[in-house]
Amino acid sequence: MTANTLTGLVLDAQIAADRVLREQIGFCGAVFMDPSADMVALNQNITYPIVPTIVPTAVTPAMVPSEPAGQTVGYGQMAISKAYKAPFVWRGEEQKSISKIYDNVKQDQLAQAFRSIINLVEYDLFLAAKQGASRAYGTAGATPFGTAADLSDVAQVRQILVDNGAWTSDMHFVLNTSTGTNIRSKQSSLFKVNEAGSAELLREGNLGRLQGFDFHESSQIIAHPKGTAANYLADLTAGYAAGSTTVHVDTGTGTILAGDILTNTKTARDTNKYVVNTGFAGDGDGDIVLAKPGNRVAWVNNDPVAVGNNYTGNFAFERNAIHCLTRVPELPKEGALGEHEIITDPYSGISFLLSVYPGYHLVLIEVSLAWGSKAVKPEAIAILLG
User: Fold this and answer.
1) pLDDT tens digits, residue range 66-116?
2) Beta strand pairing status for 213-218 and 171-176?
3) How many CA atoms does the CB half-sphere of 100 hold within 13 Å?
4) If phi over 0 gives left and psi between -120 and 50 gives alpha, with beta otherwise, what is residue 357?
5) Residue 306, SS3?
6) Which of 139, 152, 194, 217 is the most exposed place for a label (fewest CB within 10 A)?
7) Which of 110, 80, 87 is nearest to 2 (CA)?
8) What are 165-219's pLDDT values in tens digits?
9) In whole angstroms, how large is the CA radius of gyration of the chain?
């Protein structure tokens, strides 16, 4: 086992001045933290119902009510798919050599352990939002909110959610940091002191609320590299009615990836930008799946379709549209080596398992977490391109 390197810490006057950095984790505070995580083991599915639309019919007077047709209630599944640990080790002599600041160093190591695992959770939530969104608005490659006093970007994305029927009582908007910078630097109209006399955006940089959204930032949002698709056509003689989610394409080349922005490029056909939920390996013909609620305008056989450019997204959603399952890794009922307790990271609010394994003249300390994430309601997620 490799020894720790403590050169520079073994001093007569020892002080711990380092403070562990923490990235922005906007998704962790914006999504629904699902309490059902404790019910399942690693990679065991949780099943949730998806109730179909009920089509209204005319009221026809009669002595008895007519019997409605039965429904097929669908379902979705998600799982706790990952369990990760962040360990570190100390020898007794190492602890002795920095005894005055050992507790400070260990505290910072714990903070680094929380940080590393939380960033993995945040990245998974970003992927779930990107690949599970319904539609997109904006220009790929152009950072939003770049025009002073123009808030149409947030208004247009809000319209996508409203048109899809999303609840508006608990909406969140997670921005990449470049977009957050544009708001702070370009949107001086938001630097208004409210009735209570506070001006958090101006003085503190807190983005707060705008047009019904709680705004957040995430450091884990990265650029989406588009697929290589070219010259694909929608392939169905009868065409695709509005609301279709599975589209067969042919004649083209290259890949269509989950998270790509797909458009029907037939002149005057459809101006919407759709998010690909399930992609296509490319070359020849195959199926792609658009996130619900599918295309808003009927497509005709042989309509050309194309993927948009690379983009760095910003994600608007209703809290319940994205679920995150977290729990501590399960220990055997008969007991386990070492000592274990649950400790909550004050930055994220997520609880971890802290384990201490005493060894021969050393101790192993480990922070661990199990989690899973999924976009369960694509209709309530939209992307603002950047």
Assistant:
1) 888 888 888 888 889 999 999 999 999 999 999 999 999 999 999 999 999
2) parallel
3) 9
4) beta
5) strand
6) 194
7) 87
8) 999 999 999 999 999 999 888 886 776 555 554 455 544 445 778 899 999 999 9
9) 25
Reading phi first (left if > 0) and then psi (alpha if -120 to 50, else beta), residue 119 is in alpha
d(CA 76, CA 357): 39
Dihedral (CA of 125, 131, 134, 138) sign: positive
Tokens of 23: 């990235």
Under the phi-then-psi rule, with left for phi > 0, alpha for psi from -120 to 50, and beta for the rest, what region is 243? left
Pick from 279, 308, 266, 274: which is nearest to 294 by CA?
274
* CB-based contacts of 246-250 (< 8 A; 24+ apart in sequence): 246/287, 246/288, 246/289, 246/290, 247/287, 247/288, 247/289, 247/290, 247/295, 247/299, 247/305, 248/285, 248/286, 248/287, 249/280, 249/285, 249/286, 249/287, 249/288, 249/305, 250/284, 250/285
Q: pTM of the entire structure? A: 0.89
* Contact indicator for 270, 299 with CB cutoff of 8 Å: yes
Residue 108 CB contacts under 8 Å (≥ 6 apart), including other chains: 16, 18, 19, 20
- Residues with Cβ within 8 Å of 198's Cβ and at least 6 positions away in sequence, in order, are none
The Cα 351–Cα 20 span in angstroms is 19
List the structure tokens of 89: 């080790």
Helix (H) or strand (E) holding 45: strand 45-50
- Contacts of residue 29, defined as CB under 8 A and 6 or more positions apart, other chains included, come to 216, 348, 349
Q: How far is CA 23 from the centre of its chain?
A: 15
Dihedral angle over CA of 270, 276, 282, 285, nearest 10: -60
Asked if 276 contacts 259 with a C-beta cutoff of 8 angstroms, the reply is: yes
| 24-63: pLDDT as tens digits | 999 998 999 887 778 788 888 888 788 888 888 899 898 8
Residues in the chain: 386
Q: Terminal CA-to-CA distance of the chain, rounded, Å?
A: 46
* Distance in angstroms (rounded) separating the CA atoms of residues 251 and 280: 13
